[in-house]
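Class prep. Write one:
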Amino acid sequence: MVRKILTIMITLLLVLMIPSMALAVNLSLNLSSSTANPGATITASGTADPNANVFIKMLDSNQNIVDLEVVKADVNGNYTKNNIEVPSLPGSTLAVVAGYGPNVAVKTLYVNNGTEGTELAPPALTADNSGNMAGSAADLEFTDNAAWRTAISGITVDTTALTAGQYTITPGNINLYAGAFSKTGDYVIVVKATGYTDASVIQTIQQSPSGNSSGNSSGSGSGSSSSAGGNTDLTGTNSGTITKLNQNALSTLTKTTPEQIQNAQLPAEASAVDPASMKPTTLTTKDGVQLVVPAGAVGNQSGPVQITVALGTITTPPRALNTALVLNPLKYQRQFGVQGAADGSFQFSEPVTITFPISTVDLPAGTVPQQLTVCWWDLSSNDWVKLGGVFDAATNTISVPTYHFSTYAVMADTSSAPNRLAGTDRFSTAIVVAEQGWKTGADNVILANAYIFPDALAAGPLAHKLNAPILLTDAAALTPPTLAEIQKLAPQKITIIGGTAVISQAIQDSLSATYGKDNVTRYGGVDRYATAADIAAALGTTGKAVIANGEDGHYPDALAISSYAAYNGIPILFTETAGLPAATAQVLTAQKVNTTIVIGGDAVVPAVIFNQLPGATRYSGTDRYETATAIASGLHLNVNNVYVVTGLDFPDALVVGNWAAKSLSPLIMVDKGVPAATSAFLSDNKSRITGLTVVGGEGTITASQESALRNALK
């Protein structure tokens, strides 16, 4: 301790005595962990000015310095400080500050009470693969660990606890009595041991030769092996087995400790969100879950807004999302709310970002972090709804933006991305996308004209805010397959995009008769530019806008940016080549836009227009194919899964941006072949791309084109 104090004093003296020392101005900061035990070590890293000295200090709740380090950035501005010792301040929340004076970056570090995260990993279990029949015993095998074996405190089979007389433990073997397996099917077995995380395994039981057993036979009889920490390999398992695993995981919420409940909450000193604040508010729970509330998100409130976070209480497993595996809910299920507001009733004006820290040891065996997704609990359907999110490998976190609070949970979606999304025409392709992305139904549906591309593309950010699929129709009458899909989705509200010349009053009247006049809303202006402006006003976000050419033949630019704009809640507005339409200029002012993202080169958005736009940045290439890849690279889209659309016509690809927005995935393009820019993008990112989805039938993107695309990833 004396040595640490001397180190802090010497470092402070250096700061005071050498004012000419090169200190960092432009800073970023990442921590290897947002939680740690006292005495553990963490790593701080980030970027700063090249060759600058970066001071890293830890502050307690009274702003006292409890640790101070210094590291020098390299010639590229990167810095790393390893082996920073966590102070012996159990249960405290520390601010880790990189920089000096006003030029700082800040992260939060929660110091555990010394008991969290100290459980040991158990040995892996192997199921009995001798072709077990219903009514027979099962022998589980493991690499013998005497300490774990003697610490075993209980065993459950499909959440039913066995008595001590119903199992026998010997070195490397656990024998389970025959009565535990009276029916055919898959059984989830969990072995609990004091001081260890749970070990689990799936045991398959076949039908006996006499055929007297009941249940659904898996037909394999081979069992499954598991990994430590309760992570069970799901390869080849069915939805019934996943449901059992989820039930077992969620049952831990009924046995929470006061410490776990407290750690899931925000610190008592957490700030309320000021509606007048011009800066984002960052809130971090004691166990590292973070919320970033942007400026303006609560601007419609008259006073400070107090946000609450608590341990989730939902013990119902996903039903419609039957391929989603629940991660440990004690770590990865949280109930977010606003003090004084009913659950789910508070709507933010700007998207709030929720971030969960991820420990990779919590992932199910056979899954990867890129399969993680954030789901929210829908009170109206009593089921989990997939929201999406982006996993950041650099920080081991998953983040997702949302406009409302509910209970949110991190899950691993074990389904694979579809190789192709296609229908027989533009209407059915939109339906295919809706059924892929909204398997549980939808509270809201967006309806756009199938032949007016700007309307559907401008609607993307609003659709994402409402968590609504976009369906297409003819102008005069509602297309029958679209009507059938609306009925299947069973929405409470429908939003029509465009004026009555684009989607007739007769369609609106018909929908109003079914869903109620107050539940059918139309956003439409005198032309596509005014319609986009109306949608931007309805979206309600301020500060940023996308500008693309809205004239016929220029749809690819707006399409390529659609997933990014929707994910971030940025309205898509349109310009003409000859000049900025009045409706667009007016909404830029009304929404207080100070940053614009311009899509396309001078030929589509001329310099004279670009120079009128506030804080404009242009993303473009020599053609639409290069522009699409420039957007994906320049705006750092999540390339885990890539969507490929045609750049020659818009119908098939019109609505996919709304689906791709769930994971901030890029949309890249092909012509009648595979353009060099597209092929190069795939080749450059092949180590990070795990899925590629072609949008449209083989009449739009041929099988040979698809083959060439996939070969670029090899």
The two ends are 54 Å apart (CA to CA). Residues 380 and 443 are 9 Å apart (CA to CA).
